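Chain X:
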Amino acid sequence: MDESDLDHPPRGAFCPLTDAAFPKGCRTCGAVYASADEFMRRTRPPAGGRSIKAVSDAGVRFLELYRNCGCGSTLMDFFAERRDASDAGDARRQRWVALLRCLQQQGLPPERCRAELRRLLLDQAPPDPSRPG
């Protein structure tokens, strides 16, 4: 998942480092986010800034995830790093980037390319063009 996917991440995409991370509250407006999924669904990445930062501390890898509450306040929490750091994981990411570039060279917008690749990898049927949606 890259930063541009953070507007609509898949359910369960982020796992908090501790059980105590949620519920999480905004000190500015009092909004409460009961779970990581709700936090991702009801907040947005900061405009023009980095929303995710990979961190390593004492050999432990994790993510700092920054999100904007509806009131505009920036919230941050720590999430588990799920990325496969092995050579095989690196090779999969390189293949993903190559496929993404290939689709983009065909004139498809980046967000559509990512959606089509995900659909293909998850073995999902393409959307029915005759159905509104």
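Chain Y:
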Amino acid sequence: MECKPRYTLQYYCTRKVFSMMLTGAEPKMSSPYRILFIGLVLSALAMSAGNGFPQSSPADYRSELDAARAEVVETDSLTIKSLDLGEARPRVNHFSAVVVKKTANILTLAVDLRAEPCLWFLNVQRTFPFLIWPHGEMTIDASYEFVRLGDDSTLRVRFFFPEVKAGGATDFLPPFFGKTYHLGRQNPAADVNKLFARHDTRHFHIYGARISPAAQEMEAIGNEREAVYEKISRLLGVEYPGPIILALYSDPENQAA
């Protein structure tokens, strides 16, 4: 199962504010619209806090691979351990985990893998179901794909028990495990770094396609965006909780590449 990319609420709110303010004029909103817009931004900030599961702290990709191998997930019916995230390279990667069944019944386990390459490149999400047999140990195998790999690329791993209803419809119940691994940090296989120049400011990670004019003006663009950020922050009375990723492409065709 694959999912098309969906831009986040944070992206839409940020894009909307930038489009209003890059002219240098203060946006004028009536009170009801201002309250609604602030509500959207606050909702976006809340959404960025995580999915309710403990998350790995950003580190280099090797430590993330080691952390996955050390994972032990316990439920009443099974144990999942030794998550192997493969080589963490661009394109298709192998995923495996060891499942130990504790009970005498057969059950269905699903693993959901979402690879997010960053910079609004295509996210690839796949879900794999497995029949787990009674009182035994087995290795489940799946795959995930990074269309590109950059510093901020992540892999989200989730496990859940799908429920098949009458008529064959599948109900995807809430996951009992979910974690995001940062697989682009200090990864020599990252190809985004070859395609984009990067400039960091206090609030932004700015990427400019090396073949675009923007790559030669990164510092100036960063200063301009920081000035806009200060206006947004004062207007809404909030601070964005992490760095904002800004990608500057040479043309629309390269944005989708």
